[in-house]
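Consider the tokenized backbone below.
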């Protein structure tokens, strides 16, 4: 998380409008935005960027550390279509946690081999919810908090 905060601060200081790909209400995302010094926004919907008037000429993009890489990549493709125009600049930094990325990949591989998957964790945890979301794409998945 500290890396994403540092990147957001650096981008903002360099004159970029900082976009955080993440849940606007999540404490981590709020923290990243705070490091951008009020020069940014959080969204999971690239169309929200099109609503900015005027559209910033310099946009820096980071991700909430627990986001799903494939979803982030799709978001980035949409941002390029929306925000890349004459003399514009996009700066993208992949701030998704590498440990979380490995956990997500492992969970997906396991979900491909089983008929039923249980993800155990807090219902309010972004990490737990992403694991359940990924696994549910492969097999029936249930998120449980207690036994």
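A designed sequence for it:
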């Amino acid at each position: 998380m500290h890396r994403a905060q540092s990147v957001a601060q650096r981008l903002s200081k360099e004159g970029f409008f900082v976009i955080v790909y993440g849940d606007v209400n999540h404490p981590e995302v709020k923290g990243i935005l705070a490091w951008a010094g009020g020069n940014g926004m959080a969204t999971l919907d690239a169309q929200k960027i099109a609503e900015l008037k005027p559209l910033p000429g310099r946009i820096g993009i980071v991700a909430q550390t627990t986001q799903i890489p494939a979803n982030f990549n799709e978001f980035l493709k949409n941002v390029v279509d929306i925000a890349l125009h004459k003399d514009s600049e996009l700066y993208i930094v992949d701030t998704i946690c590498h440990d979380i990325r490995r956990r997500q990949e492992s969970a997906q591989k396991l979900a491909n081999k089983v008929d039923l998957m249980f993800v155990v964790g807090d219902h309010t945890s972004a990490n737990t919810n992403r694991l359940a979301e990924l696994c549910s794409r492969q097999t029936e998945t249930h998120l449980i908090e207690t036994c």
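The longest strand covers residues 58-63.
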